[in-house]
Structure formats: structure tokens, C-alpha cells
């Protein structure tokens, strides 16, 4: 019977856009353009940071890693979603669903901890500028990224294992456009309060802990900024943090709404709408917020374009 429960549901059917049948071709065109623009923007950011030595600093190193995370995150979800918008049978295998959930949780959780690392970088830059190059050396930056990935891997592995060890032998209709935790859990035949609690606590660990670290960093940053005598100096110091704060607000706002609210408040239509924002729109806006409004980056981009157009023999 245990073998039957584990193998009866061999695939899931996505119903995320079933209520918009007449608009699916239009949605395909819009999402495809946004996806291609997102890929292009992130590719420009990564290549510019790699090619321009002036951007070989911890802040831009973290930005390049963030762009890689954004690119991989959208690659896991958006191409499959685009295909499903054009076909009648919108299915994914049981194993494919587990792999998709693990991958997006890994990247999403790593993204949260990377934002905490970026907050620490801004704290050191503003509160201890004389020792910035020592404290934020290449080894420290690599260590922070590795720690973020290790935390993301642990959370995603435990969560995915808990979800897909549950029995699925009833409906296989997933009211979403990818394998997110709540829609998949709704299809499980039964799940204990312990598994729900563990999954919720992992969500708290992946969201609240990094957010608290960011808050501690910014409490100290604000305290240091207020001690700067000139208003111009205060503005310059705060402007280096503004982009990070915007990205943090959007990321944690969407993620907390999805993963940290009571199960009784679950709404598949609301979740699908919010999920579109953080799987398609947020990866589009984050690079623009961080880089394309940054004077230093725009100067480096112009230099890279000149070197590409007029290479030195």
C-alpha cells in the first residue's frame, strides 16, 4: 500500500492560468519579452562586472552573484510556464515537480541569505571604512556566498524531502503554475502537524533570520549616518544603501506573504498573482534598481561598450 501511495500520482497538472484561457497567447508574448529582457539585463550586468576592473569590489561581486541567482531562478520556472501557456496538457512529472521545488527553494533561500551578506557589506563600508578592504577581502566574500548557498541547500533539501515523502493518491490538479510548497501540500492525502510545523520553521529560518541580520546592520548604519555632520555626506552614505533596501523590501514582502501566513488564509488565486511578481517582475526590476541607476556602473558599462565597439589592437 505504501508503494501504491508513492507511485499512484505520477504527474501533476498545472491549473494556474486555466481561468485565463482566452489570454494565454497574450500572456505568453508578454512573459517571453519580460523573460528575454531579464536574461539580457542580467547578462550585461555580469559581463560588465567581470570585464571592468573598477567594479572588482565586494559590493559588485555580490551583485554579480545576485544576478546569477536571478537568472537561474527564472530559468527554473519561466521556460516551463511559457511552454504550458501554449499547450493543452500542462503537466509535470512527480520527480520533475520535486526537482523544481528543490531548485527554486535553494535559489530563493540562498537569495535571502545573500541579501543579509550584502547588508553586512554596507555596514562595514559605512561604519568601518578604514578596515573595509581587510574585513571584506576576497576570501570573506566567497565565504559569505558559500554560507548563503549552504543554508539555502539545507532548507530546500529538508523541505522538499518532507513534502514529497507525503502520500499523494487523490487529486493531481495543482492550482498554480509551478511546484510551490502550499499548492503541493494541499494535494497530499494527509500530512501531520509536525511536518507542517517543521516546514513553517524552515521558512522562518530562511526569511526571518536574514531579515533580522539586515535590520541589525541597518540600525548601526543609520546610527553612523546620523553622526555625519554634512547633509551631503549623509545623502551619499544613504544612497549606497537605498537600492539594497528596495530589493529587501520587495523580496521579503512577497516571500513573507506566501510562506509565513496561516494556512487558513491560503488563496490559490492570490498566491499565483504574487508568485508572478516575484518570479517574473522582481528579477526584472532588481538589476535595474541595483545597477542601471548606479552612476559608477553606468560609467563602467559605457567603457565596456566602447572597448567592444573599438577594440584596442
From TrEMBL:
Domain G-protein coupled receptors family 1 profile positions: 41-290
Keyword Chaperone: no
Taxonomic placement: Eukaryota, Metazoa, Chordata, Craniata, Vertebrata
InterPro entries: GPCR_Rhodpsn, GPCR_Rhodpsn_7TM, Olfact_rcpt
Source superkingdom: Eukaryota
Family annotation (Pfam families): 7tm_4 (PF13853)
Record-level Gene Ontology MF annotations: G protein-coupled receptor activity; olfactory receptor activity
Protein name per Swiss-Prot or TrEMBL: G-protein coupled receptors family 1 profile domain-containing protein
Subcellular location: Cell membrane
Keywords: Cell membrane, G-protein coupled receptor, Glycoprotein, Membrane, Olfaction, Receptor, Sensory transduction, Transducer, Transmembrane, Transmembrane helix
Gene Ontology cellular component annotations, sorted alphabetically: plasma membrane
Topology in the lipid bilayer: Multi-pass membrane protein
Role according to the record: Putative odorant or sperm cell receptor. Odorant receptor.
PANTHER family found in the cross-reference section: OLFACTORY RECEPTOR
